[in-house]
């Protein structure tokens, strides 16, 4: 087994989650030895021989942790909601990578009126589960089309009336002539822990979880 009882494996994604997790790791006395943006390595050692970091796609973090290939990981609430959270213990909101899940439409499109008139809307999104539940709870009829990126393009080329996507500053929406018409939920990243690892590796995990919890309070 590559993930032995000696070793702790932390799953992170490149970009903002990696960057914003570094200070939390520092608070736990852990320094990652290489930068994933410049290194091609997918397994990064740390100053602690018993802790390593694996670099995976943001949406794959829950899967690695669920199956125990990683003992713990950091994933956005958006990703966890789509995954369903099976086999994952979610002890801490790290208050990092904050944004919101929203509905946006082309600036000329009268969303409120369309909804009021019971129009059937075409919606593109990477977050099919979240979107389905949101529109169902509002009683809005939608045809959901799954995309893997660049959702903003959908309404501009006639693929959809609306998008469901993450928004932080809104500059991507503005650059594409879209407006936010509804906020679905606030998003931040959570620590997720494999349920078996939580029992079997408790002594090693506990001090790290405590340091993360303490340091993440500063972000709230
Ligand atoms: P990839 O870029 O590999 O397709 P991704 O788009 O899911 O994957 P990121 O854009 O790095 O990866 O997003 C990772 C996580 O960061 C998301 O799951 C979300 O929780 C959070 N996030 C995404 N966009 C923003 C944003 N604009 N502001 C803050 N946090 C964000
Ligand atoms: Mg991205």
Describe the structure.
The chain has 220 residues and is an alpha/beta fold. 33% of the residues lie in helices and 32% in strands. Strands 2-3-1-4-9-5-8-6-7 form a nine-stranded mixed beta sheet, sandwiched between helices. α1 crosses α9. Adenosine-5'-triphosphate binds at residues 13, 15-17, 57-59, 76, 78-79, 97-99, 149, 166, 168, 187, 189.
Brief sketch in words of this structure:
Helix content is 33%, strand content 32%.
Please give the number of β-strands.
9
Regions with little confidence, pLDDT below 50 for 5+ residues = none
Number of helices: 9
In N-to-C order, the SSE pattern is: EHEEHEHEHEHEHEHEHH
Distance between the termini: 38 Å
Which range best describes the helical content: under 10%, 10-25%, 25-40%, 40-55%, 55-70% or over 70%?
Answer: 25-40%
Question: What is the typical, i.e. mean, pLDDT?
Answer: 96
Radius of gyration: 19 Å
Determine the CATH topology of the largest domain: D-Maltodextrin-Binding Protein, domain 2
Ligands, ions, cofactors: adenosine-5'-triphosphate, magnesium ion
- CATH architecture assignment name of the largest domain: 3-Layer(aba) Sandwich
Number of separate domains: 2
How many strands, which pairing sense, and closed or not: the largest β-sheet?
A: 9 strands, mixed
Structural class: alpha/beta
CATH superfamily of the largest domain: Periplasmic binding protein-like II
